[in-house]
Amino acid sequence: MIIKSEAKRLMIYFFYDADGIVDKYVEFFLDDVKKSVSEIIVVCNGKLTEDGNKILSKYGDVIVRENKGFDVWAYKEALMSKGWDQLNEYDEVILANSTIMGPIYSFSETFEKMDKKDLDFWGITLYFEYEGDPFGYSPYGYLPDHIQSHWIACRRSLVSSKEFQNYWEEMPMIENYEQAVGKHESIFTKKFADLGFKWDISVEMEDLRQFSGYPLMMCPKLLLAEKRCPIFKKRSFFHMHSDLLRNTTGEPTREMFDFIDQGTEYDTDLIWQTVIRGVNQYDLFRTLGLMYTLPTHLLDKELLKENLQSKQVALVMHIYFTDLLEESYHSVSAMPTQSDIYLTTDTAEKKKAIEERFADFPCNKLEVRLIENRGRDVSALLVGVKDIIMNYDLVCFVHDKKTAQVKPGTVGASFGYKCFENTLSNEDFVGNVINTFFANEHLGMLSPPEPNHAEFYPTMGLEWGPNFDVTKELAEDLGISVPMSAGCPPLAPLGTMFWFRPCAMKSLFEQDWNYSDFPEEPNEIDGTLLHAIERIYPFVVQDAGYYPGILMSDKFAAIEYNNLKFYIRGISQYFSYNGIGPYYEDSLNWLGMMLSHKGIIRAAIKMKIKQFLKRVLPKRFHKPLKQQWRKMKG
């Protein structure tokens, strides 16, 4: 135990950020830590901005090193640079890193609790024993109980030991995350416990052993609310969805965030700042549940009245098809009468027809603008109204829609229905959208869900289509630096209808687009600049410090749920009837194996060939497979 009232403590704090930016959550963390430690050394892997260096230097010496060896070698370099003689002067040496956020409760509480215990080392949270060795590096053949390496406090009795010093001096280079866990984190605790050193953790978790192997990830709210755990993982906002669904229904991060926001004094702006900047938008969407399903009846009339008095709201609609003019009028009628309405079209004749139909439309202001027929609805927004768009706090952008390239016509009409129902369902729904934006200051954009009916079915899973490279190139031209991955779908308005804060789109409008920037008609149905812009919108918003989300009316949410349930039931039944499962990824792995030529043969070998053909493969595969089978037997 530590008896001294003024214990001498050193914290070695490992920091990494791909852009070298130090977010405010790091400052908050270190501001609290420095109340309980004597000295801080910050070790940064990779680059560090000038501002970041100034921030971290406030807390102690800063070592900026090559980005290799992960946190393990960062700790090693700091330990070696200090030297064992000097390290032995400290009562505790704490190895911590920037993968944890907090504290929700001051670390002084944790230190006070652990100072009373007779230990050689301790941590905050535990990862429970895991059968088997998923990383292939454990000398034990399994992952034993271990203190999670984001915080390990080592007392003088351990630091001064030859075993501890040899451990670090002989530490091999760490080449990847799997080695960081397999060669250090998962074995550190058992290695030194087996040598007779005593250890413990500050958060009492033994009662959770049968509940979760990884409580800090799978039930973080429970740890924060009931165990007074002072920390939470930044990884909560991008942890693998497959692992979450193996252990939960996907609720842990949202439940944790709501507790932090409503039940603690921790400033959630510290979370938003770092996750919006550094986490893929789809990961934020799924972990935080950024799906806004709003009622088609108004929830708070007085709040809407206040918002419309203090905020400027507008609708921009591009009208191309005069035979849809009545439908367009109906959609625009969902906007509050306090709104400004801008309607764009491409010919003088259409402009006249629109002005006649909207002559007595009830609104604050209505203007019909004539634009060039180049760039379609995209240029209508980026060129046609660029002079006024920044005058507004919130804008809805829509356009009439036929999707004439698909047959029968009901397919395209239903796509249009999905877009309009989830942007301008009715006046009450629009009121709820307006209130939602002004109640969530970090919300920058809301779009309807992607189409998934008829031939649009593959869109869910192939949201990028052939447009990733052209969108990535556009992002580079715009200087957008937030994460963008071909493996993560954009939260994009694939029908180009959405609500947005103009201030979140400022950088896009500042490009000063002209009609000549867009391809002439006739246009390709995919893979063009227009489709890249359609997908870049949410990244522009995120780069500005806001998050995009998905918007549905309660009426359409019921339709969408039933559609998705129909799809999933069919897939699940197919796999179940063929003995595949029970987990989702088991089915995917099996499918991947089957789609490889050799995999099909291997699967066939495991059962009688006739049974295999009958149960598993469509008839068109039977003949070529039999031919291949004969070749293998020959």
Short description:
Helices cover 44% and strands 14% of the residues. With 634 residues, it is an alpha/beta fold.
Explain the overall architecture.
This is Rhamnan synthesis F family protein. With 634 residues, this protein is an alpha/beta fold. The protein has three domains: 9-233, Spore Coat Polysaccharide Biosynthesis Protein SpsA, Chain A; 293-452 and 491-520 and 541-552, Spore Coat Polysaccharide Biosynthesis Protein SpsA, Chain A (Alpha-Beta Complex); 577-633, no CATH class. It is 44% helix and 14% strand. α17 (348-357) links the parallel β14 and β15. It is elongated, with a radius of gyration of 29 Å. 39% of the residues are buried.
Layout of helices and strands:
Layout: E1 9-15, H1 24-33, E2 39-45, H2 50-57, E3 60-65, H3 70-82, H4 84-87, E4 92-97, E5 100-101, H5 107-115, E6 121-123, E7 126-127, E8 146-147, E9 151-155, H6 156-159, H7 162-169, H8 177-194, E10 199-201, H9 215-218, H10 220-226, E11 232-233, H11 241-247, H12 252-263, H13 269-278, H14 281-288, E12 291-294, H15 301-310, E13 313-318, H16 325-332, E14 340-345, H17 348-357, E15 365-370, H18 376-384, E16 394-399, H19 409-421, H20 427-439, E17 443-447, H21 468-478, E18 498-500, H22 506-509, H23 529-543, E19 547-553, H24 554-577, H25 584-595, H26 597-605, H27 609-615, H28 622-633
Parallel strand pairs: 1-2, 1-4, 2-3, 6-10, 12-19, 13-14, 13-16, 14-15, 17-19
Antiparallel strand pairs: 4-9, 5-11, 6-9, 7-8, 16-18, 17-18
Protein name: Rhamnan synthesis F family protein
Organism: Ohessyouella blattaphilus
Pfam families: RgpF
